[in-house]
Write a structure and sequence with these properties.
single chain; globular; 0% strand; 6 helices
Length: 147
Amino acid sequence: MGFQKTYIILLSILSLISGGFIYLFLRKPPAVFQAFIPKNYMTAIRELSLARNLSTNTPDWIIYNLPDCLWMFSFTLAICVIWDFKLHRQSKFWLAVCFLSGIGFEILQHMSLVPGVFDWKDLIFIISGATLPLSFIFKIRIDEKNI
């Protein structure tokens, strides 16, 4: 599992970075995440995005929904790696925290308690991002039983 674990960790990191790049390069300001980036960097990022005409040729679901899926996938996958893809009390607790934080944040947006725009598609993408790493757990368990 050690060799595979390295690739799984890289996949988690790549998902996190990909979601961040989509958010930075394709979203129009003011996006919440962009508030943490110095203005001179954001200006350069915006100019690069506009120069390449990235956001106008990209479907909306990639710009607005896919980052949530990628971040949830990364977070859930990281928790699965930490707990060695085993389901027990501690891992279930952290997986629940992960899932509920993603869903909860979207619900809090709906209630206008946190900045952002509630979107049902975000919920679907968040659930998808959380579910895929869990399917790895079941695949690993099936493979272990067949050995």
